[in-house]
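Forwarding these from the shared drive since the link keeps breaking.
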Amino acid sequence: MTDENLTPTPAAEWPKNVAQTVILPSTGIARLKRPDTMDLMAHGKVPKKVGSVIAKQRGKQAITEAEAITLLEFLIAASFVDPVVTFTRKAGVPLCIRDIGDEDKAAVIDLLRLV
């Protein structure tokens, strides 16, 4: 949208992507932040199978339902600031996306407008 009558938002007022503390349907409390996929990709934090789905999507190619679920689960896991939630189970990290219930996943998607 372009409009010559619009005034740019001052930097001090620019909406920032900050973590917010929320109570999820499971009654778990988490600090969530909308993930920055470009930043995650730049720092090598995107698993290969997720990166290929992102590439397909950016190339306007259709993705399967299974690929869409993989991408969503990665984004949900990446949204958790505290506690940390991993996309794949890792030693020393107690929570994996597979441990998060569907209601909590849906709440994260809605809260952060991931789709």
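-- next protein --
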Amino acid sequence: MWIIVGFLISIGLNIFLSWYLLRLLGKFYFISETIADLYLTTKAFQVFIKSLYSMDTYHGEPMIQELIYRIKEVTEEIEEFREVFEPTLDEELEEELNAAEEEAESPH
């Protein structure tokens, strides 16, 4: 009798834990995609600000220079968090952004 009750409780607990695990994995996957998108968005914004700063009209502008510094800090923080969820990052898009960033940094 006790074996059957224990077995039924075990089955119920396993079903519940499997359901809970699937929900957690779904949430982690969503977080992973969102962090990757956020990282790529901030990286693209950083590239844009650097290219704006390199324009003759804005070169040397202290507010834009401060903005570049701040967005770099934000990008680095997101990158640290993103390393946990790296498998879902769009590597091709990141390579394009890195190339654009290098181009923006190079003197014209």
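The radius of gyration is 23 Å. The chain has one domain: 27-105.

- D.
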